[in-house]
Design a protein that fits this description.
214 residues; OB fold (Dihydrolipoamide Acetyltransferase, E2P); five-stranded antiparallel beta sheet; 26% strand
Length: 214
């Protein structure tokens, strides 16, 4: 006895009722191959930091569906360029992390040649709106941050366990320090050094103990 296998597809009896419906179904199937944007999860991060902008490996989060409504998870899309706020040699570096949720936008043409050369180039192939030509923008639907820069109506809040400055810092108004202030070299009040200044007119003896005199 020959075993029967039931096959499922997107087409059913209603898609062939007349030529207009059949044509609409055909166009709909073609549109299914066009990728626009998708929510994705970061599963790998390459390069980044103070190096040139790197790449991420991502997995689309919305499952594909078979004709009988069974879920098929997407595979991983590798080496997707990610977005960084940058102008010339100035940048804000917040690289993606594994587990982040973000958005991939898919380009209308093959961008592989431009990604490789960073110059004007012909498309690497004839593909269009393809999964391979994604650009990653983060992040969406992520959890609460533990360090951040927050812009409010009352000012700017910088929260972190450590903030490092490698250049000169100018403050036009009052600096209030609620903790200990340390200097590993020196502190100046105008031109007076806290470390090396010499106070003149001081007499020895216990009678000179007490607060400084004007």
């Amino acid at each position: 006895m020959q075993q029967q296998h039931e096959n499922f597809g997107q087409q059913n009896s209603s898609t062939t009722l007349d030529s207009a419906i059949a044509q609409r179904f055909f166009i709909s199937q073609m549109l299914n191959d066009i990728q626009t944007v998708s929510l994705v999860k970061v599963v790998g991060v390459n390069a980044g930091g103070t190096a040139p902008v790197g790449f991420v490996d991502v997995q689309p989060l919305v499952n594909q569906m078979t004709g009988d409504r069974k879920a098929v998870e997407h595979g991983v899309i590798y080496k997707i360029p990610y977005f960084r706020i940058q102008g010339g040699a100035s940048a804000i570096i917040i690289d993606p992390k594994v587990g982040d949720i973000g958005m991939c936008g898919f380009c209308s043409r093959d961008i592989s040649s431009v990604v490789a050369t960073k110059k004007v180039a012909n498309p690497g192939s004839y593909r269009k709106f393809d999964w391979s030509d994604g650009l990653y923008f983060g992040g969406f639907l992520n959890g609460a941050p533990s360090q951040y820069i927050e812009f409010t109506d009352d000012g700017i809040n910088i929260v972190s366990s450590k903030v490092s400055f490698s250049g000169d810092v100018e403050i036009e108004k009052t600096l209030t320090v609620k903790g200990v202030m340390k200097s590993l070299i020196d502190v100046f009040a105008k031109t007076v050094s806290l470390l090396t200044h010499i106070t003149t007119g001081v007499q020895s003896g216990t009678s000179n103990s007490g607060p400084p005199q004007q």
